[in-house]
User: Which sequence fits this backbone?
């Protein structure tokens, strides 16, 4: 087995899943936290932390308000990137995974199923928040929450039509293992349109 094979297997999805399990076993804080970057009308990348909530086939699932800044940006430009960083993982200085791909909405059934698993307070919050839009005062938000709690008292909270899931289908991965003296190990995987397998290339640090 080559040095490359020893560190970076041929299948980047399987490798990602292996690293995620390693991060979970190490009991790192919120190992599923990831930076999601989208492109705005101003041409700038906009980044924020969201949570990986599952994988569909080869896709990476997350949930949000469709009318939020990221939702509106993805509507216009479905290209996005994800970044995971797990410090001090696997006896190294840390491990990092960059993923680039195209984003699509999950089905209503998938979004309904996940929404039903959320804490009731988070379900109410999805209705109360016009995410990313101006808010006059904290009191206004709290009043909305109180009104919604009364509205749905004693009954399940349905999923708002403006809230749901996305899946990012990867076209590029980059895996990074931190090493001393900044002599890191890096490997990039790319899949050309229509290709059945991933190309794999080691990169200089």
Assistant:
């Amino acid at each position: 087995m080559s040095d490359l094979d020893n560190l970076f297997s041929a299948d980047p999805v399987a490798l990602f899943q292996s690293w995620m399990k390693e991060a979970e076993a190490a009991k790192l804080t919120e190992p599923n936290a990831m930076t999601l970057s989208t492109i705005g009308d101003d041409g700038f990348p906009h980044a924020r932390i969201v949570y990986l909530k599952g994988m569909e086939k080869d896709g990476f699932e997350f949930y949000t308000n469709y009318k939020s800044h990221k939702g509106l940006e993805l509507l216009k430009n479905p290209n996005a990137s994800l970044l995971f960083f797990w410090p001090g993982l696997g006896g190294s200085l840390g491990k990092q995974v960059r993923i680039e791909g195209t984003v699509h909405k999950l089905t209503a059934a998938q979004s309904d199923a996940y929404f039903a698993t959320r804490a009731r307070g988070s379900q109410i919050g999805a209705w109360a928040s016009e995410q990313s839009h101006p808010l006059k005062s904290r009191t206004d938000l709290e009043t909305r929450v109180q009104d919604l709690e009364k509205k749905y008292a004693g009954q399940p909270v349905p999923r708002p039509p403006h809230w749901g899931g996305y899946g990012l289908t990867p076209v590029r991965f980059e895996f990074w293992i931190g090493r001393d003296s900044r002599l890191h190990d890096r490997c990039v995987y790319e899949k050309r349109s229509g290709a059945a397998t991933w190309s794999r290339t080691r990169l200089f640090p």
